[in-house]
Specification:
Elements: E1 6-9, H1 17-30, E2 34-39, E3 51-52, E4 57-58, H2 61-82, E5 88-93, H3 97-105, E6 110-114, H4 128-136, E7 141-144
Protein name: Universal stress protein
Pfam families: Usp
Family: Belongs to the universal stress protein A family.
Amino acid sequence: MITAPIVVGVDGSPAGEPATAAAFEEASLHHAELVALHAWSDRDLSVVGTVAPHLGHRIEWPSTKAAERAVLAEALAGWREKYPDVAVRALVVQDRPVRNLLMHGTGARLIVVGGRGRGGFQGMTLGSTSTALLHTVTCPLLVVRSR
């Protein structure tokens, strides 16, 4: 029996680690593939390889992608060892997280995200990604807050 995947947004921040832990646990419990998605930019970077006026410098996608793959690999490393039964598909995208979580979450058993990640302010209940998903997702959503 093929089980729908669990999709987790991984931003590489300490606040996002509980979401990664929960996603691995759910994938293990349901014998589901885990799709770990790391979207490394919240900005429209369609000008990659050119001068990005809003950033003030040239962006080199190949070197940035390698660095962001390393962020994702590091965030998953210990969890892969703890849950060797979980098949993981690691994806790095240069785009906004919400759009990609929704796209890869189509038909998913569950989408898991942190309550707030890299840009979160201490007093915020939910971050922008979890808030946007809460209003648009069509499958179950688990928002895991860090302590």
